[in-house]
Design a protein that fits this description.
The chain is α/β, with parallel strands linked by helices and 193 residues long. The chain has one domain: Flavodoxin domain (Rossmann fold), CATH 3.40.50.360. The chain is built from 8 helices and 7 strands; from the N terminus they run βαβααβαβαβββααα. It is globular, with a radius of gyration of 16 Å. The chain starts with a strand and ends in a 7-residue tail after the last helix. 37% of the residues are buried.
Length: 193
Amino acid sequence: MPLLEVIVASTRDQRVGRIIGDWFVAHARAQGSFDVELIDLRELALPLLDEPHHPRFKRYEHAHTKAWSAIVDRADAFVFVTPEYNYGCPPSLVNAIDYLWAEWMYKPLGFVSYGGISGGTRSVQMTKLIATTVKLVPIPEMVTIPLVAQHIKDGAFDSTDKHTGSIAPLLVELRRWTDALAALRGQRAGLKA
């Protein structure tokens, strides 16, 4: 079964990203199209990009980069769980993407976004621009959670039918693209920059 990595982007102390990520992972596992793994960028604690070589060469010098490379490389698809910071994506997410190149290639990408009135959608639009440069394939189906603070009760996400109803279409389409891109992922080893 293909591996879906759900990446929680926010690293702030007072964040709800992990709560949203745990909620989504539970639903994704129940749906059964993927093996699902949660990756929390706060726990990963990547420093600001500190590799001396361009990532296309895969000449990583630091243990944290080698570990991150292995995590991303083993995945077949991703869902980024992201808030919106100042109409854009979190710097932690940009940094995590920028560390690598070939490991991201030809893998579909979905989003679970959250925030204020816009539900994090501006973050998603900005992230799509960055993601396509490393050949991730963003799909349009997504889970959007506007006014997220109103749905956090006793440290858990109190979802509505609208929230949970948008999970299945995201996962179905993500699996279609995962299968369709499998041949291209198999050819990544032969790519040269």
